[in-house]
Amino acid sequence: MTGPLILAIESSCDETGIALVEGGRRIRANVVASQVALHAETGGIVPEVAARAHLRWILPVLDEALAGAGAAVGDVDAVAVTYGPGLAGSLLVGINVAKTLAWVHEKPLIGVNHLEGHVYAAWLMDPGQDELAEPVFPLVALVVSGGHTFLVEMRDHLEYRLLGQTVDDAAGEAFDKVGRLLGLGYPGGPAIQRAAEAAVQHDAAFPRAWLGETLDFSFSGLKTAARRIVEGARVEEGIAGEPETALPDGRIAELAWGFQASVVDVLVTKTIRAARAAGARSIVLGGGVAANGALRDRLLEEAAGLGIPVVIPRPGLCTDNGAMIGAAGARRFEVGERAGLDLDARPSLPLATR
Ligand code: KG4
Ligand code: ZN
């Protein structure tokens, strides 16, 4: 493959990711150091702890990525780095390493929006993987992560029109909060998926917030409903006054299934509606929640009914990683974008506004 070789750095949240990506698509190396175990102890991310962990791991991750690709920093065409949105202290670790490498090796520096990275993960191919078809424009992309939930239309590369977004919690945040409510630990998303897969009964009814015909989302009502439903289940099981006693596994599985079904129903229905309205020729799914099997299956099934191809990265490329930043960074590099050494963290950087 031809095209620029990008060294890409991601440190916006709780994964330290560094990758080498060629031509915006082919992964040469992709190393992710996850802080999940670290944050599981506190049931969530403590920003100061996250930043220190990035600092501890970023150089070993860099060494491993370069060794994996059989490359040196001198071989790359540019250094791309996430500069927002995310946790300020965590972002700064990646940004400062990127700036240092770019300055020492006289390489162009490219600032990448983390959310754009989640969209561009759909273009990635693993080392040795057969050539994949690219997503076709115009497309509709649903990004569902721990901090963000939105739908955008793209008529070309790097062009985004916001179609809808969450008015309160992100989908991943809802998974994490309800996971905690069910005693499933952190992060809630994968734990809820696993519990739901074990469900025998499929009749737990959770509400859906449709917000009329809009393409916006709301998950805070669902979270409140989940609390009420879990409390009701505890009364039925006769353990209402025993906070230390867990619900029976079967009951947890049923509730996890009901919650997941509600989130998936709303996400897929609105994505399909958006794709039809935009005349989309493909649909892209990205962000950590896109690792969810039920969401992937249902979207693939409904889009197939409409004859619209869906591109969903493998689960490891849906959650935060450096390769997705390399995919987006290559596009920005090719259109001549360059960041200065004054590049700063933008914790609330938007991708598109209405
Ligand atoms: O994109 P990401 O790795 O980090 C952010 O940018 O936020 O997303 C993390 C989120 C978490 O809320 C996590 O619970 C959720 O993605 N997640 C999942 C699954 N795997 C990760 N949610 C549902 N099902 C999964 N299998
Ligand atoms: Zn993310």
Topology:
Elements: E1 5-10, E2 15-22, E3 26-34, H1 36-40, H2 47-69, E4 78-84, H3 88-104, E5 109-113, H4 114-120, E6 139-144, E7 149-154, E8 161-165, H5 171-181, H6 188-197, H7 220-236, H8 249-278, E9 282-286, H9 293-306, E10 310-311, H10 315-318, H11 322-334
Helix pairs in contact: 2-3, 4-11, 5-6, 5-7, 5-8, 6-8, 7-8, 8-9
Low-confidence stretches: none
User: Main β-sheet: number of strands, strand sense, barrel status?
Assistant: 5 strands, mixed
Could you tell me which ligands this complex binds, including any ions or cofactors? 5'-O-[(R)-(carboxyoxy)(hydroxy)phosphoryl]adenosine, zinc ion
Structural class: alpha/beta
Distance between the termini: 37 Å
- Number of helical elements: 11
Descriptive report:
The chain is built from 11 helices and 10 strands. It is an alpha/beta fold and 354 residues long. The protein has a 5-stranded mixed β-sheet with strand order 3-2-1-4-5, sandwiched between helices. The protein has a 5-stranded mixed β-sheet with strand order 8-7-6-9-10, with helices on both faces. It is globular. Zinc ion binds at residues 114, 118, 145, 287-288, 320.
List the main descriptive attributes of the protein structure presented here:
five-stranded mixed sheet, 11 helices, alpha/beta, binds 5'-O-[(R)-(carboxyoxy)(hydroxy)phosphoryl]adenosine, binds zinc ion, 354 residues
Short synopsis of the structure:
With 354 residues, the chain is α/β, with parallel strands linked by helices. Helix content is 43%, strand content 17%.
